[in-house]
Design a protein that fits this description.
The chain is α/β, with parallel strands linked by helices. The protein has 40 helices and 28 strands. Strands 1-2-3-4-5-6-7-8 form an eight-stranded parallel beta barrel, surrounded by five helices. Strands 21-22-23-20-19-25-26 form a seven-stranded mixed beta sheet, sandwiched between helices. Strands 16-15-14-17-18 form a five-stranded parallel beta sheet, sandwiched between helices. Helix 7 (123-135) packs across helix 11 (206-224), helix 9 packs across helix 11 (206-224) and helix 34 crosses helix 35. The longest helix is centred in the middle third of the chain and has 26 residues, at 693-718. 54% of the residues are buried.
């Protein structure tokens, strides 16, 4: 067989093409001249932003973040337990309370009946909520009507008919809800209730439906929101049935994404405090109405990564509000939010609490969550700060409202445990233990406030108090029957404060969904207290007794994050990550990262090759600061390439005969070693590839997942022959084996994950491998190959060949000894490789290619604008837009386009561009000057031809010596404006009409690319249409479109975006394998024994 020389046109495809957008992705193989000069000075990673060492009390909080649940609960059991006699008294009192509440509930209102029947524990309740919440904000009638038709015919509404004596929940339920008048839907409906519902919709018309559902939402809004503004809420609070309660007003609003939104919320709080003050003066701020504040509403970057900015801004804002509250004689409490914000919130609240200007005012409050493992230690810290300042805290103890999100986040991040308890009774035990802690602090340091809707908790807290002052709290719209039996001298004689939301119907949505989830959860006390099917004994069981009876204190159905996959019958560990919001983890990581930084060196790893025969030595500079030389790599010459090919051919048969289980064990050992050495590889990713710290963690985790996943696949697919159907007297089986020599050509944008993904797949299938990294990231590739050698892969089976296209890339792909190529990079380079492989007079080789994409996100007006903006910013700008999956185009329905554009511009203004070694950096550098030049040229064109929406700020002092490019967003008229993919942080926005969805999908398909697509819509029919008609490999709905997880979201495109099969999917290894069928005539040795012995 002769070697084929690439034609000159193909040869050029291996070189850098300065005008090609996606060429920046795996652009060829020719290293650019280095810039800057060698220096021994390296910028530290992470450590400049670490906080100073803190007090012992705060250290105990940090250490308890992921505390072992069994250990934590056992500690709390002792603190929560009551003597047997007292425990019986509490249970008896709780039972009496439930009995009285059930008697009262028989006289419940129409709205209460409706809410209880259609809560979110039923599919119908969820569908109702989907319709209702969307109708509050969808501006156009076309999408509104589409949503109504999509949802209201979907579910089994009929099962609710006759379930209640309430008019609203009986036979006319949906007639009244949808039309505002009595229509008996059950008449003549027979078994076709859904059909009857659809006919009703058709009969009364969409406008009537819209109006009626909005009216239903107003009813629901009145149930859960105290007033549309603070004056209305205050007036309502003074009405007879409400006047017996104290109030804490919460100005509705979710996390601010922009500075303008944060300032609007700040002004809302100012106005509310002034309005409360105007109704004074009050005898004291304990009896007075108070205000509740969310820090996430006051600053758009309320996160540990932005610690310095957030701490300063939030302290100033909260201090201003506290000073106003002090002036008007009221109290102010700060609501609790997600776990990763807790300690930053303590920094802010602690500073304000001790501020000299608040001397003499004991009105600052804090909310703590019983489901959080750190809360007992937070209470200890509160006591310590109160002692130190001579002031008193209000402390509201709640169960916690973000439980499901905390569980999911810990699993996704691969943490060592959970920040919250996994069983509700564990949280109930924590609540009682924390209540005792609050009382024991003394009323001069803490005024306890207990937010609960649980009868046992109410009785237990009242008993623990032993007459000491405190108040109960409840949510407006929830627990009113319960607390009607609690307050007053004839009952518990303890005051109750109502947490009362204030805001417009538009602001109601996120709050209402959370409240209904709580109210409707099957385990919710509010939902169960009036359910006669639930025994009172079960309802009021002492949680200490319940938890003490558990065989396992952690929930047996909620595995630790490391066991997540195994719990779903996938026999491998979840990769472990790093908690980048925990100061202890950050300090340990900073030490490891900086210890790992050294002058890295890389050279070909080819047994038998002469070191003197290799090519030029190339310096590697930090993309964030080209003055910093982070290492050198030596290119392979043609003789080394030939030696590598000879070695690979000779080594492959022995490796192929190695049992699949043995090959898999080596991959798994490599995964364990990589996971243990995460900091070392993160440092390389930061310094050589310019990756941010979160991206570097994700990079290593993905590589670990690839190693484990392909090891598992190898065991299952290559471990034994597959037995096939056969006639009697014959056996047939299918065996998989390695193809031969595989060349793996990987990109710089995922220099560890994709590199090891390709290599481990080829190795697991029984191939020998020659790994060719992108020149920009040869140091990372070298370290990865050394790791695999150390794990047990023979050096001749896996070889490393850094170098340029003319010497290495082209030589490998035209060689007849190569059985296959795995490639990730540009479509143009994939074409060149395909031509080179096809031109050989050799066995037809396999090509596995993942290439470019013109990735779009489609958002209609039913989607949440805030969610669209969050997800498109992550999709377009994370990793400096240097992901093959990144969003390049946002199609936005014109009815919400202006709102989304304003929000997008404001959110982009909050991005920080700079050193990827700092946790505060959102967007790091692009890989090199060639990549930046392509982006600059495109921006210059867009500045002339498109409408610029926004450009993120960029500090010249922080970016002067690197290849930085500020994220930009432009509005363009159509997709045809973009001639090719722009590989960097540039987003293009296109408006479309609701009637043009089909055209949008066709326009995306017409590009020929088909990698990723994002969809934001609450309409199932819309999601279904897009997913069925868009020709893309990965479609993501109502989330971002990056970060595919190995074995969970197999990744790869179609059309111009790749050959398939999908990386990290069940069919990937098969592309690296050959198949052999073995047929044996079992009768040849004398008769068919199996047939002769089957009996009569």
């Amino acid at each position: 067989m002769r070697q084929i020389t690439l034609p000159e046109a193909d040869f050029r495809a291996w070189r850098r093409v300065p005008t090609a957008g996606h060429e920046a992705y795996n652009r060829g193989f020719i290293p650019s001249p280095t810039t800057g000069t060698d220096t021994t000075v390296t910028s530290p990673i992470l450590s400049p932003e670490l906080p100073a060492r803190t007090t012992p009390a705060r250290a105990r909080i940090t250490a308890a973040w992921l505390r072992d649940e069994t250990e934590a609960v056992n500690d709390l059991l002792d603190q929560a337990a009551l003597p047997a006699e007292e425990r019986e008294q509490v249970v008896d009192r709780a039972a009496a309370l439930v009995t009285r509440v059930r008697a009262r509930a028989k006289d419940q209102s129409v709205v209460e009946s409706f809410m209880r029947q259609y809560d979110l524990s039923s599919e119908e309740g969820i569908l109702l909520m989907c319709v209702a919440e969307a109708l509050l904000r969808i501006p156009d009638k076309t999408t509104t009507d589409k949503l109504i038709r999509d949802k209201l015919g979907d579910a089994n509404w009929r099962k609710h008919l006759g379930r209640s004596e309430s008019l609203l929940v009986n036979a006319s339920t949906w007639g009244l809800l949808l039309t505002g008048r009595l229509v008996n839907l059950a008449d003549g409906s027979g078994d076709d209730f859904n059909g009857a519902l659809r006919r009703l919709v058709a009969r009364v018309g969409d406008p009537a439906i819209r109006a009626a559902v909005r009216q239903a939402m107003r009813i629901m809004g009145h149930q859960f929101v105290m007033g549309r503004d603070i004056e209305e809420a205050l007036d309502r609070s003074l009405k007879k049935e409400n006047a017996v309660f104290r109030y804490s007003f919460d100005m509705l609003g979710e996390s601010a994404l922009t500075a303008d939104t944060a300032e609007r919320y700040q002004q809302d709080y100012r106005n509310a405090i002034a309005a409360l003050g105007a109704r004074g003066p009050y005898a004291n701020h304990t009896d007075a109405p108070s205000i509740s504040v969310k820090l996430s509403a006051l600053f758009p970057r309320y996160e540990v990564a932005q610690r310095a900015r957030a701490h300063q801004a939030l302290t100033e804002k909260l201090l201003e509000l506290s000073q106003l509250a002090m002036k008007h004689g009221i109290a102010l409490s700060v609501d609790a939010e997600e776990a990763d914000r807790l300690e930053l919130s303590l920094d802010v609240i602690g500073d304000v609490f001790a501020h000299p200007s608040l001397e003499g005012w004991n009105g600052l409050g804090i909310v703590v969550q019983a489901y959080a493992k750190r809360t007992p230690f937070v209470i200890d810290w509160l006591v310590e700060t109160a002692l130190a300042s001579g002031r008193r805290w209000y402390v509201r103890l709640v169960k916690g409202a973000y439980w499901d999100a905390e569980i999911k986040k810990a699993q996704e991040q691969g943490l060592g445990g959970y920040p919250v308890f996994t069983r509700k009774p564990n949280t109930d035990v924590s609540y009682l233990a924390c209540a005792r802690r609050l009382f024991n602090a003394g009323g001069n340091l803490i005024y306890p406030q207990f937010a609960t809707h649980n009868a046992h908790t109410i009785a237990a807290v009242h008993h623990i108090a032993q007459g000491r002052p405190f108040e109960f709290q409840r949510l407006h719209g929830m627990g009113s029957d319960l607390y009607a039996e609690v307050i007053g001298k004839q009952s518990f004689n303890v005051p109750c404060r109502v947490y009362a939301p204030v805001g417009s119907h538009e602001d109601l949505l996120p709050y209402l969904v959370r409240r209904l989830l709580e109210n409707g959860a099957n385990s919710s006390f509010v939902n169960r207290i009036t359910d006669e099917d639930v025994s009172i004994d079960d309802l009021i069981r002492d949680p200490v007794e319940a938890v003490s009876s558990f065989a396992s204190i952690p929930h047996p159905k909620i595995p630790l994050p490391v066991d997540l996959l195994r719990s779903q019958n996938h026999d491998r560990n979840n990769s472990m990550g790093i908690n980048l919001a925990n100061d202890n983890a950050l300090r340990a990581l900073a030490g490891q990262l900086n210890a790992a930084v050294k002058p890295w060196q890389a050279a070909p790893l080819v047994p038998g090759a002469s070191a003197s025969a290799s090519g030029a030595t190339v310096p590697v500079t930090n993309p964030a600061d080209h003055r910093e030389v982070v290492g050198h790599w030596q290119a392979a010459d043609s003789a080394t390439v030939q030696q590598a090919l000879a070695n690979a051919v000779a080594a492959q048969p022995g490796w192929n005969r190695t049992p699949a289980a043995s090959r898999a064990a080596i991959m798994e050992h490599a995964a364990d070693q990589l996971e243990a050495r995460i900091a070392e590889f993160m440092a390389l990713c930061v310094k050589e590839a310019g990756k941010s710290l979160p991206d570097s963690v994700a990079e290593v985790r993905e590589a670990v997942d690839f190693l484990r996943y392909y090891a598992k696949q190898a065991r299952e697919q290559f471990g034994h022959a597959e037995t096939l159907p056969s006639p009697t007297g014959e056996s047939n089986e299918l065996q998989l084996h390695g193809r031969g020599v595989f060349v793996c050509i990987s990109p710089w944008n995922f220099p560890l994950a994709i590199f090891l993904g390709q290599v481990s797949a080829a190795l697991a299938a029984g191939n020998s491998v020659i790994a060719k990294p992108a020149e920009q990231t040869s140091l990372i590739g070298h370290a990865a190959v050394k790791l695999l050698h150390e794990a047990g892969v023979p050096e001749a089976v896996l070889q490393f060949l850094p170098g340029d296209g003319a010497v290495v890339g082209a030589a490998l792909t035209r060689d007849p000894r190569v059985a296959g190529v795995a490639f990730t990079g540009s479509t143009e380079t994939a074409w060149a490789i395909n031509r080179a492989l096809a031109a050989r007079n050799a066995p037809i080789a396999a090509l596995v290619a993942e290439t470019g994409g013109q990735n779009a996100m489609i958002a209609d007006s039913s989607a949440l604008p805030e969610q669209i903006v969050k997800d498109v910013i992550a999709s377009a700008f994370q990793s400096a837009g240097q992901r093959c999956s990144a969003a390049r185009v946002l199609y936005i329905q014109e009815d919400i386009a202006d709102k989304v554009i304003d929000m997008l511009a404001g959110a982009m203004a909050e991005l920080k561009v700079g050193d990827p070694g700092l946790l505060s950096t959102d967007v790091g550098p692009v890989i090199d000057e060639d990549a930046r030049a392509i982006l600059v040229a495109h921006a210059e064109r867009m500045d002339k031809e498109a409408k610029k929406i926004a450009e993120a700020p960029m500090d010249p002092a922080a970016t002067a010596h690197g290849t930085f490019f500020a994220p930009r967003a432009y509005e363009i008229p159509s997709l045809s404006v973009l001639k090719r993919e722009v590989f960097g942080p540039v987003l293009h926005l296109i408006r479309f009409k609701a009637s043009e969805l089909k055209n949008v999908v066709n326009e995306i398909n017409s590009t020929g690319y088909g990698l990723t697509l994002g969809v934001h819509s609450r309409i199932d029919a819309t999601v279904h249409y897009i997913s069925q008609h868009a020709r893309v490999g990965n479609c993501y709905v109502n989330r971002n479109q990056i970060g595919a997880v190995v074995g969970v979201q197999p990744f790869g495109g179609e059309g111009l975006s790749g050959t398939g099969p999908k990386a990290g999917g069940p069919h990937y290894l098969l592309r690296f394998a050959g198949e052999r069928t073995l047929t044996i005539n079992t009768t040849a040795s004398g008769g068919n024994a199996s047939l002769l012995t089957i009996g009569e």
